[in-house]
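Quick entry between incubations.
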Amino acid sequence: MKSLALILLLFPALILAQADWTRWKAVPPSYKIKIGQNTETEKSDGSFTSDVLIGLRSVYAFFISDLDGDNCPFYPSCSHFFVRAVQATNLVQGALMFADRFTRDTNIFKSSTQYPTRLHGRLYDPVFLYELDESKINIKKLLNPSNEN
Amino acid sequence: MKTKSNYFSVVLFLFLSLPFVLSKGQSKNTSPLFTPVNIKKFADYLFAEKDYLRAFDEYKKYLKTENNDTVRFKIALGFQQMGRYPEALTHFKGLFFNSDFTNQSRNEFFKTLFLADSLSYLINISNNEFFKTHDSLHVPLKLSFTAMMLQKMPLPDSVSFVNIFNKKEKAGMSELYSKQRRLPYKDPTTAALLSTVVPGLGKIYTGNYGDGITAFLFTGVLGYIAYDNFRANHSFRAWLFSGLTVLFYGGNIYGSYAAAQIFNAKVNFDFVSEVKKFLEKENYFIPRYNFGSK
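Done. Structure below.
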């Protein structure tokens, strides 16, 4: 009887006991950027132009951009901006948008009034501002880019 | 030994049956804490603490036994405060007729529509008999005029516009009215034309001086390289840089048009923010409530 009582009392204690101590161990901080963290990716929209551009951008990233370093002050970076601009509009308009972006990139005096938001540590300059469609220019979204990848 | 064992069994039985005894005692619910008056008091406290979801639970318990329009109105207000506008609108609508809060609920209905950015709908229904209020506040009309101002719809002249507002609101609304008439928009076509004449001038027109100077230098240098290569009979390089010049020249014209559109969107956004700030200050032309112990 005593042993039964003991089991009845100890059983919940055993079940609820904290056994997983590894979770609470002190972990030294790591400042390395994890692979896949803050990476900008474009999904193909199924068009031939988009596929070719994504491919060319990957080649540029592999041979030039990744070796050169993460230098573009904007988010999305200029190469990603080009791909997204073409996906959102067409090749000609996308090229013009890219030319404008590249000119703005070379301007060394970038004001916080022109680029009020920072995303992933860079100046947030999304494609929807430059599509020449007033209904798409959403300042609220520019100031709170919560859904941007 | 056997007596000791029996004694232990009795103690164990009592110990194990303790939860059942306690839960039975609770289910009787005879405590004076749970009277409708006390439930409402607790709900009012939660409401004042902005703990709306818990307050709603208590109010619903209260409404099972009592009939109280103040409580129903408070539930609707709570939904509005939480930003759950469709639910708030439904609850306010439920108080439109045969209620102590007929006018208040209609006023709050219009405020909720404004908060939900349903400005076109607000303007459309402001003269509808179903939504009309019968008090001296004229909240639907005031909010409808403000919405028309934000939607850039044709407004009555300044005197007729301002006259519906009371003395306290008049100064602020009059200032916003005249501000709306002279918002400093930039014309995108002018910006594009300026950049066509002189690369970068359109950007300077939209206030992006650095971009304008950069565009001028960028296009100028590329153009000069193309010209120099043509002069030196370096045909391939000449055409390559000519292409780049055309691309960046076109890009700048395009960018100037876009920059003017972005400038205008920012002007609009700032004006809308200013109007909303004013409305918040004036509580959307609705007097503050003092529910007391109702």
